[in-house]
Amino acid sequence: MSISPRVLLSIDYEPVFALFRHYDHIRDPKIRRDMDGGFTSRAIDSILDQLGDAKASIYLVGEIAEWYPDVPQKIVDAGHELGLHCQFHRPLVNVDQLADDLRDSQEWRKPFNVQGYRAPMVGISEQAYPLLESFGFTYSSSIYAPAGTLLKKGNMWEIPVSTWRARDAHEDLVAPRDFSFKLLLGGEFPYGSSFSIGFLARRILSIIEEELKRGHSPVIIMHPYELVDSGSSSRLTRDLIRNPHLVPFLWDKSPFLRDLLKSFPTSSLRSYLDETVAVNG
Ligand SMILES: [Zn+2]
Q1: Centroid of ligand 1 to alpha carbon of 154 (angstroms)
Q2: What SS3 class is residue 116?
Q3: What is the Å distance from ligand 1's center to 215 Cα?
Q4: Ligand 1 centroid from CA 1, angstroms
Q5: How confident is the model at residue 170 (pLDDT cuts 50, 70, 90)?
Q6: What's the gap in Å between 23 CA and the centre of ligand 1?
Q7: In the chain, what are the domain boundaries?
Q8: How far is the CA of 192 from the centre of ligand 1 (A)?
Q9: Which of 87, 160, 179, 204 could form a disulfide with 104, with the two C-beta atoms 3.0–4.6 Å apart?
Q10: Could you read off the pLDDT of 221-256 as tens digits, one per residue?
């Protein structure tokens, strides 16, 4: 049996500087908070407003919960799912580093009973699943795979970020499956990535429509700086000159979100998972 198809809308809630790998080594919380410059506190009200009655999964970078404790509370009070993106944004494919990061977020996560995890840069290893389970998670959304895929990894579920491909293929979907040339060469288009949305918003809305007609529930990622203007600064200009491939992440995608919410039903990944498990026993 299947449940009603919907868009599984997710927001990886992170500061703008999380885009740039050359800040990964900075650990001083005060410096990091100053670099955010109040953006992640300011953006939340507008994003909750843009979502209206639609429900989403918001995967929070934990340091934001420490800078601004009202941010996770506002997410939950508005009826959205609060998930974990990581404590400090950096690649966490290595399980030892992931274990450290999960320990660092334990305290603030507990009262919110956080169940879902989205790996930074959608990069995860197979060994991460039992580790996530031991930290109280029930699912992850940290690989790319065709919409409609729901994987069981031990006791954990994996709800992949959506790709589209013309032909069916039956292979083991083993992590990592990030946004890479290998994925593209295999004929998969990762339309659930906000990088793709930056280039092909219209086309992606029609792919979503086709997926829903086929009974699939596509998983889409967005970021706060795509929905609320993070403001310009000489530091950001410098960062983008050094990393021109990241420019599409900063294009305004609020019109895309508006069209998506107008056209399709949405839900959090957790509601989708709970309903699916309840229906299938
Ligand atoms: Zn991220």
Answers
A1: 25
A2: strand
A3: 28
A4: 34
A5: low
A6: 13
A7: 7-276
A8: 14
A9: 87
A10: 999 999 999 988 999 999 999 999 899 889 999 999
262 CA distance to ligand 1 centroid (A)? 26
Q: How many CB atoms lie within 10 A of CB 186?
A: 13
Q: Encode pLDDT of 41-94 as tens digits.
A: 999 999 999 999 999 999 999 999 999 999 999 999 999 999 999 999 999 999
DSSP 145: E
- Amino acid at residue number 126: E
Q: How many CB atoms are closer than 10 A to CB 254?
A: 15
Write the CATH number of the domain with boundaries 7-276. Answer: 3.20.20.370
Q: Which residues contact 211 (CB under 8 A, 6 or more apart)?
A: 5, 147, 148, 162, 164, 217, 218
Q: 256: which 2 tokens?
A: 């895309």
Q: How far is the CA of 2 from the centre of ligand 1 (A)?
A: 31
Q: How many residues does the chain have?
A: 281
User: Which residue is it, tokens 């410059």?
Assistant: 37
Cα dihedral 40, 118, 197, 73 sign: negative
What is the DSSP pairing of strand 219-222 with strand 57-61? unpaired
